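Task card 7
Instruction: Convert sequence to structure tokens.
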Amino acid sequence: MTPRLRPCLLVHYHEISLKAGHRPMFLRHLRQNLERATVDLQPVKVVQLPGRLMLDLEGNPAPEAVRERVTRICGVANLALAQRVTSQMEAIKAAVGRMIEGRQFESFRITARRAFQTYPLTSVEINRELGTFVLERVKTRVDLDNPALTIHVEVLPSETFVYSDREPGPGGLPVGSSGTVVSLLSGGIDSPVSAWRMMKRGCRVEFVHFHSVPYLPPTSQQKARALVDRLTQWQFFSRLYLVPFGEIQREVVLSVPPPARVVVYRRLMVRIAEALARQTGAQALVTGESLGQVASQTLQNLARIDEAATLVILRPLIGMDKHEITAQAQALGTFEISVEPDQDCCTLFVPKHPATRMAPEEVQGLEERLNLPALVKAGVEGAQLETFEFPKGAGPFPVSRHAPAAEEGSRSQ
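Output:
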């Protein structure tokens, strides 16, 4: 009888395996995210196996679409479309035969791994027997160092997985496993990259965009929506707060000399974003600042901005240069959106020569001229909330104000 071959997607993780007693929590989030990412591509059943997760694709009409979705799930180290068979050698050979059928390859290698040591053949013996099987059917040769085709065989007690085209995932930790943060999102290149890097560290990201409508056209809002829509493909559901900042800037212009305005603007943005973060239970703010990139990002000015916050401000890009950030933006597909021309609040009422080294007492003296509580209240109350979902049916994350923490040790630009 011909062995039964069943298609599946095999998912491996790496960093999660190092989490010891917290591993079940991380795996739960990863499994939930796999289910959310494929909710509209049914039937897909996610099964947890020793050291890996398996998506059963039997009867699924779009396995390549499932594979493509999983490439954007943080926490996945690598993935591969595979054939799932019983762990009998004849069934394994049938899966290998299906894989090489009609293919031409000048060299190959068999890489077998046993997940249990009581299997009657060792990994070396499996490699040898399957290698002989391939050589009897294809005019090729074995190359252990640089093969044109690598056939992976993972033997578990009750079933075996056979695949060839393994591809990397994003790695990191599953979104949702490290709590919620709020990202200050401009229309620039940097802030979308910083938000994505926090997703990769397991954070759910909410977004705050400051705009200057009606003083400027609404193009920056359109860019912010497009960027959040793109990034939602990595976390399935997003919230975007559009904060009117033009009137707040006008109040600052009336009281603060030009060189100091950028830092005062940034401190107000931090206060408003923090107030919105507390409404959603977020535990930190995220910005796209890179040390020394612009005037507001000197060590002294970053310190002044931090002094306005009571939540921690995370800066994932702080040590990256513009070339590194741009390369990451291009890989994410946000670069093309970010470089579209627009006018955002960063271009309104901004001096040509902003101060680069403001002292604490200087900032404090200037802010005493402003009604800070009223300005923050205006920004929070004027914020417009929009939601984004991918794919359809993924739905919002459950509200959690005390998400489990990861194991210890392990513009707006």
